[in-house]
Specification:
Order of helices and strands: EEEHEHEHEHHEHEHEHEHHHHHHH
Helix content: 40-55%
Largest sheet: 8 strands, parallel, barrel
CATH architecture: Alpha-Beta Barrel
CATH superfamily: Aldolase class I
CATH class: Alpha Beta
CATH topology: TIM Barrel
Number of domains: 1
Strand order of the largest sheet: 3-4-5-6-7-8-9-10
Structural class: alpha/beta
Number of helices: 15
């Protein structure tokens, strides 16, 4: 096999890159001591399914669950049925509920952590009022708890559409938090991940929204294990985690700045709940294992090559990051085809995906370079890119 591969450029040319030697990554099935780490996992589409925009999701269950076993192998918990799994972007509630049930059972068999998203997306059409949204949240919370998973209370498009003030958000969330059976993770998903969530918590002004968010947590701290914040602002995250009540964790959702936020500042640190960790699981495990040994230099060295890859995968428009995660899973043999529910494989250009390959190669995250090169060539051929 050639040790170089040609990548297309936008101007019509090609350039050669060197293939890195594959790295043998150590397993860390026991998890980590210093940080809690969840990977938000994608779903693998059934290549025989009618996975076109607007159609019910057809999932390859074997590949989807095997990928979760891959994450457990590296000591990561799974954040299930989140935006990475295409909630509100092709994953309907019947598929979501089956996914949560299957994944929770798998996590129990591995002795691994799992937390799953509870939202309001099973509602058909717009919600009529706040009470309907509250009932919808509680229905999904009950389902997730019944499956044996921790609950992640997801941001609700229906609530964003109906709420007219911060008080409306507080009314709904307070009702939900007063009825959960164990502490939950609250998810604040920014509009870069879902434009329909603009103005969440009652204001487009982030400081004002943060005050509302913190007032909710202060009132219900016993019901909140932690918060996952996906605003891609390291400064905001540092300020928020310092203001959280004792015992409430901050699970970083910052796929741009996660190494420094997880490392911490000596006083506070973030735990992790990241879509990026689904793409960089072996390297994330190596870094977190080093942190367990207080080996900060090795932690930084292991994390550093993953950052350019993650920032590229999560580049604007950020909500299409799932396409890059599924593409990398395909390159690494975790799924047989590069297809996604809702046809979302069309969410990124071929040149964007070629750069995913290049950055994964630089991070030594291509587990079988020969397979990855072959599949990259298939993608090029389908796009009409022939040298």
């Amino acid at each position: 096999m050639s040790r170089t591969v040609a990548l297309p450029e936008a101007d019509g040319g090609w350039r050669e890159i060197e293939l890195a030697e594959p790295r043998v990554w150590a397993d860390h099935a026991g998890g980590f001591q210093k940080r809690i780490a969840f990977a938000a996992a994608h779903v693998v589409a059934d290549p025989r399914g009618e996975n076109v925009p607007g159609a019910p999701a057809a999932i390859d269950w074997d590949a989807t669950l095997t990928f979760r076993s891959h994450l457990f192998r590296y000591g990561l918990g799974v954040a299930e049925a989140m935006d990475t799994a295409q909630r509100n972007m092709g994953l309907d509630w019947p598929a979501t509920s089956e996914l949560i049930t299957r994944s929770a059972a798998l996590a129990r068999s591995h002795g691994a952590r799992i937390a799953s998203g509870a939202g309001t997306d099973h509602l058909i059409g717009p919600a009529s009022d706040l009470d309907e949204i509250t009932r919808a949240y509680l229905e999904q919370v009950e389902f997730v708890e019944g499956a044996g998973s921790q609950v992640i209370v997801m941001a609700s498009r229906q609530l964003a559409a109906v709420a007219s003030s911060a008080e409306d958000y507080l009314k709904v969330y307070s009702s939900v938090l007063s009825q959960v059976s164990r502490p939950v993770i609250l998810h604040w998903l920014g509009e870069m991940f879902d434009p329909q969530l603009n103005g969440y918590w009652g204001s487009a002004d982030i400081p004002a929204a943060t005050r509302t968010f913190l007032s909710l947590i202060a009132e219900h701290a016993a019901s909140v294990d932690g918060v996952k914040v996906s605003l891609l602002s390291a400064d905001h995250e540092r300020e928020l985690r310092a203001a959280l009540p004792d015992g409430v964790r901050l699970y970083t959702g910052d796929d741009y700045n996660y190494p420094e936020l997880i490392e911490g500042d000596g006083t506070h640190h973030s735990d992790a709940l990241l879509g990026a960790f689904a793409a960089i699981a072996p390297a994330a495990a190596a870094a977190l294992a080093a942190l367990d040994e207080d080996d900060v230099e090795t932690y930084r060295r292991e994390m550093a090559p993953t950052v350019p890859l993650s920032r590229h995968v999560f580049a604007w428009p950020t909500y299409y990051y799932k396409t890059g995660i599924a593409f990398l899973a395909w390159l690494n043999g975790h799924q047989d085809g590069f297809v996604m529910v809702g046809g979302l494989q069309a969410g990124r250009s071929t040149l964007h995906l070629a750069r995913v390959f290049e950055l994964a190669n630089e991070a030594r995250l291509l587990t079988d370079p020969e397979l990855a090169v072959h599949r990259l060539g298939v993608a090029f051929a389908l796009a009409g890119l022939v040298r």
